[in-house]
Amino acid sequence: MTTPLRLGIAGLGTVGVGIVRIVQKHAALLELRAGRAVEIVAVSARSKTKDRGVDLSGYAWEDDPVTLAKRADIDVFIEVMGGHEGPAKDAAEAAIANGKDVVSANKALLAIHGQALAEAAEAAGHLIRFEAAVAGGIPVVKALTEGLAGNEITRVMGVMNGSCNYILTRMEDAGLSYEAVFDEANALGYLEADPELDVGGIDAAHKLALLASIAFGTQVDFDAVELEGIGSVTIDDIHQAADMGYKIKLLGVAQMTGRGLEQRMSPCLVPDTSPLGQLAGGTNMIVLEGDAVSQIVLRGPGAGEGPTASAIMGDVMDIARGLRISTFGQPAKTLRKARAARAAVSAPYYLRMQLIDKPGALAKVAHALGEAGISIDRMRQYDHTDTTAPVLIVTHKTTRTALDEALADFKSTGVVTGDPVAIRIEAV
Ligand code: NAP
Ligand code: HSE
Fold it and tell me: Ligand 2 center to residue 167 CA distance, Å?
């Protein structure tokens, strides 16, 4: 008789409870599909007495996740506590040192310590799997490591944070300010305990860094992601973009360029008719481009109990079936350190600024752009007041370096008040 695959789960919050539910509900199905039973042996969380709405009576309890990770009677350690230091890291390391495979939903842990953890696991003949860490229920890690394994990946992009997409689409639909929708989303419990992880783009950047590593065979490098959150996007920008046929999305883009690996997570304008432009609410979308496949689009729930536990169980089932794929799709030791290229690929930009209403003001701005080698595609002045005029400019393709030069020059013109807004227009 084949031996069961024995699981230890550290963390019994949203995701942990979701895993328990699936294992309990689908025990027979999992056994049929894997050819062996999949059983939970032991669990850990902070509170032993909290009612979690699931029956945990059949499982051993550990107060300390590190002790759980070391138990001789588990084969797979599932880390769904969160946090990139402390118990999550200690327990993952202990599991590897004690001969377990590790499955985690923790993008922060993987984006910061993924290389070291993967090297340690692989040296010990074990695995770390993290499908649930990127885009929740969308099997994008599988798509990259398995389905697209025959491609040279040329670009990975997508909307990887459901909370930000909810905020941006709600602003647009209801005509509300960023601040109003932020408060609403927070009250509804849509944002992380530290909302900056969502709206600052950090959560999404962790995910992008993980995908970039698999796609380009490079060591995961979260610090190299150019990061800008959605806090400066105004309802005015959303309306202006809509007028020109665009939507604003917090878009992650990773591509290998002649100058190195470009990884960006920032608000971008995308055509409103594109799949990314049409993505509404808390849903995620990942676009993968490869030399053989051309382009594929994956869309689905990026968070929540069921979708995230579904992704964890996909990894568990691979292990149960004996599928052994390296953490980042190739042995961790063979991953290169990539040179970071800052917005190497040129693009048109949307610029919005407030000009003092006096003769020659627009000419000074146009001159600053011209001096930086930037050509204007479209320009519009609107909602004029007694003293100032908002001006919107769409440039032809330019580099971020040239744009930064022009933006710095705007300050010395004496006609631009406040900070101009610059949003990249992405070809999707
Ligand atoms: P959560 O609801 O806050 O649950 C965290 C769990 O970890 C709780 O059960 C907590 O115990 C336990 N825990 C925390 N510190 C612990 C410690 N020192 N020792 C033992 N247990 C500890 O979090 P979650 O939403 O399930 O998320 C878990 C992980 O999945 C995170 O890395 C998150 O980023 C990732 N993830 C979540 C989602 C999602 O939709 N929620 C989606 C994708 C990825 P108590 O319950 O006793 O406090
Ligand atoms: N806060 C994340 C989101 C949850 O909104 O997408 C999953 O990482």
Answer: 12
